[in-house]
Amino acid sequence: MKVKPVNHAKAAEAFLEDAPHLTFHDERLWDMRQKRDQQMHLLPEWQELRSRASAIKEHTLANLPEYLEQFEANAKKNGIHVHWAADGAEHNRIVGEILEKHGAKSLIKSKSMVTEECDMRAYLEPRGVVVTETDLGERIQQLDGQMPSHIVVPAVHKLVPDVARIFAKNYNTDPNDDSPQSLAESQRMAARPVILTADAGMTGGNFLVAETGTFVVCTNEGNADLSATVPNLHIATLGIERIVPRMADMGVFVRLLSRSALGSPITQYTTHFRGPQKGGEMHIVLVDNGRSARLGMEEFWTSLKCIRCGACMNTCPVYRRSGGLSYGAVYSGPIGAIIDPTFNERKYSTLPFASTMNGSCTNVCPVKINIHEQLYKWRRVLAEHHELPFVKREIMHMAGKLMGQPTLYRTAINGTEVALSSLPRFVLYNWLNPWGKHRELPHPVKQTFHSWYKKNRLKGKEESKGGKA
Amino acid sequence: MSSRDTILATLRANRPDPAAHELPPVAVLGDMDAGKARFEDALQLLGGQILLPQEGDTLASAIARRFPDAKIICSAVPDFEGTIRLEDVASPQQAAATDVLVVRSPFGISEMGSIFLSEAQLNSLNSAAHLTQHIVVILSEKNLTANMHTAYVERPEFHTAHYGVLMTGPSATADIQGVLIRGAQGVRSLSVWWE
């Protein structure tokens, strides 16, 4: 059976109907964007940092096989077991085998978008492994049976009463608890015994350093360091693109990451794992899952520069008003819209259209990915691959014809004045016109620019020409 | 062919031209102030505290004043007693009972207010730094480095430690309706004591 495209617009419509959630979501993310701006203005070298970060990442991607080999050699020298996974299924199998070998039945983990990509919990749980997310937002999402709705703040679409309801059901806390402090404390108290008795710990990671065989994890809650250091077995999963050549390059990225993400200068924890701790065992799984193929896409390979800060999501008016879950994908927002189609072109064919093309995502990206241009390029690719829905395709087709013929276009535009002011609402606002949902069409203009120009300027020109002659 | 070899072969076939993407030289940018005042401002912005001595104070009396209810004060430094020494803590499960852990950090970063800890400071029980309720970090002004660039360029620990954490203030979260909470799952407070 052919997979159906995600109906982003329809899912967003449901999100738009809930005013309290919508307002909070919109304002919270915009606040993160503004805090980012404040940090940016404190650093005169901000644009220089972005240029450096972009150049380092592009260089690394062009030399990715060599840097990965260098990383592997150094990590192995330090006693880390290095695994390679071509796709999500292989990743899950590798993790499952490591756990089985150790007889590990309980796994505590910190947030990792790659394990979401691989849908790892769904693989491990039927095999008898209890997986506990320890990041507060991620745990809320796990208990609620939802994907993270944002790559940095997974439960940003929820309000205090939502969390109180979920915790009451799972932690037997007061369902009317309206204090974020006491709810966060409930998570701490619930997580601590699970952490202390876990058989294995798992983390994601933000960076790999080729020179030293290190991986770097940037977090705030302390749960990642607990997950990595309390059990004797630590498994880390990272995408192969997360690499930088030298330890000294980390300065550029650490200075950009949290400022871009949350508007804080640095995450509370920036942890460098270079080898197993005393008496412990450390594994790292390097995951491809479509990345090596994406590197070959001339117009889209620079999306691999992404350091997953989420700044493009926080600034995007469509994301802020539709919510991450409406994208129906692991990665949402502008960055999601340009990388999701590489995972499944048909399923995510609607996402590059979830943009106003205002370019704000590109402007805030710390590694200078031309996100809005890639959104546009994806639209073209999807049209060429016949992945446009019927209405969009037909309207584009008609618009193309209209705009290709000046006379026809002008007749039609002149006609809109009559149409917009005289047609009944049901003709203007219907399923053929998604722009008519949640917004009014513009007031018709009395005169188009073209007809005004023809009447005034052109006439004047003719006259002055005549005068000269 | 193994997945490793398949992935590397695909990358070699697909990559953009390496000659068109040179590696820029190491960047050392920004404010080069490695001062104490800058460190303190940055630390406090991230919720960390300075443990200030009062007249005639020792570290022990300052800790007793700051943490009057603390029962288990664990010392990872030779020049402070505490109620237990970190060398005598056998496991993370035992470390979890700690109220206050006292450690010495080899360096701090003025730009961020970050302090560094590795297995060398934690007697290889790395979890102790995160299971304790509170942490007191002894730091010397002469061991401050200006910013993230200078830290990564100058400090040998990034090339030697198996576990190296930059802690900047206490653990924190804003995952519930955007409300910032200091003291999430790791330490509830982080205080710096100047020596």
TrEMBL record, chain A:
Residues 297-318 form the 4Fe-4S ferredoxin-type domain. The keyword Repeat applies. It holds the Pfam family Fer4_8. Keywords: 4Fe-4S, Electron transport, Iron, Iron-sulfur, Metal-binding, Repeat, Transport. The keyword Transmembrane does not apply. It comes from the Bacteria. It comes from Acetobacter orleanensis. This is 4Fe-4S ferredoxin. One of its GO terms (molecular function) is metal ion binding. GO terms for biological process: lactate metabolic process.
UniProtKB/TrEMBL annotation, chain B:
Signal peptide: none annotated. It holds the Pfam family LUD_dom. Residues 92-189 form the LUD domain. This is LUD domain-containing protein. It comes from Acetobacter orleanensis. The lineage of its organism: Bacteria, Pseudomonadati, Pseudomonadota, Alphaproteobacteria, Acetobacterales.
